[in-house]
Automatic annotation (TrEMBL):
<keyword id="KW-1133">Transmembrane helix</keyword>
<dbReference type="InterPro" id="IPR005182">
    <property type="entry name" value="YdbS-like_PH"/>
</dbReference>
<keyword id="KW-0812">Transmembrane</keyword>
<feature type="transmembrane region" description="Helical">
    <location>
        <begin position="133"/>
        <end position="159"/>
    </location>
</feature>
<keyword id="KW-0472">Membrane</keyword>
<dbReference type="Pfam" id="PF03703">
    <property type="entry name" value="bPH_2"/>
</dbReference>
<feature type="transmembrane region" description="Helical">
    <location>
        <begin position="101"/>
        <end position="127"/>
    </location>
</feature>
<feature type="domain" description="YdbS-like PH">
    <location>
        <begin position="165"/>
        <end position="236"/>
    </location>
</feature>
<protein>
    <recommendedName>
        <fullName>YdbS-like PH domain-containing protein</fullName>
    </recommendedName>
</protein>
């Protein structure tokens, strides 16, 4: 059966449906659902990581076999329509763990202040003492400010992540960003000169990282995507499409 490779689907990403053919890796036997437009390309198997070139199948490939389920899926764009392979956004909260922890702490303290102002001490003598010092009204106001401030900060981070989009198609990688004005940077896969993934130890623990791409026609990096979930997977998808 013809060779195939695959890339593991990433949670939280979108891919436009394209025509697929299911093959079995000749090295490890993993079933892979491969976009037809990738035939003839050299790809690494996502399970055993052994490289080989996809050839036109000699035998009849598996098509919609009842009960058959591919272990991996590879998408790619083709023709004039340029299909989307992967769409992802920066992580809203994992991208800034310290600030997120501070916002959550502020919200929790705000709730405690409101409870103290309402006379619900929860067994915490400190709340009663603080209420006696500054008064119930001031304590409730402080609690409200903390809660609203924490929620606004987290809401802004979530909105910013939604307005930053990294899109990988069969031909190019595009990064669009901006809340009001929209800026777009893109790199053709055939022209990629430099592809970098940067992750600290803490980033790897949280499953986020930074992805940078540049083309042969530019001196600097053209795409700077910070805090992308599973950046190594995104980089593998881009490499498969080069």
């Amino acid at each position: 059966m013809a060779d195939a490779s695959a890339s593991t689907p990433d949670t939280g990403t979108d891919a436009t449906a394209v025509q697929h053919v299911t093959y079995q890796c000749p090295h490890c036997g993993a079933k892979s659902s491969v976009a037809e437009v990738l035939m003839g390309e050299r790809i690494d198997c996502r399970k055993c990581h052994k490289p080989f070139e996809l050839g036109v199948p000699v035998a009849q490939p598996i098509r919609d076999e009842p009960g058959a389920k591919a272990d991996f899926v590879v998408d790619a764009g083709g023709g004039d329509t340029e299909e989307k392979v992967l769409v992802t956004h920066p992580a809203a909260f994992r991208n800034r763990p310290g600030k997120t922890l501070l916002a959550v702490t502020a919200i929790a303290l705000g709730v405690l202040c409101l409870l103290g102002a309402l006379g619900v001490g929860l067994g915490l003598g400190l709340l009663a003492q603080v209420e006696g010092w500054i008064g119930a009204t001031v304590l409730a106001a402080v609690g409200g400010v903390l809660i609203v401030g924490g929620l606004i900060a987290m809401g802004i981070w979530w909105l910013r992540s939604r307005f930053e989009t990294l899109t990988v198609t069969g031909q190019r990688t595009t990064f669009r960003f901006g809340l009001i004005s929209r800026d777009t940077s893109e790199v053709q896969h055939d022209d990629i000169r430099n592809l970098q993934v940067e992750q600290s130890g803490f980033d790897r623990l949280l499953g986020v990282g930074d992805l940078f791409l540049s083309s042969s026609g530019q001196d600097g990096l053209e795409i700077h995507a910070y805090g992308i979930p599973h950046p190594e997977h995104v980089a593998d998808v881009v490499r498969d499409l080069q």
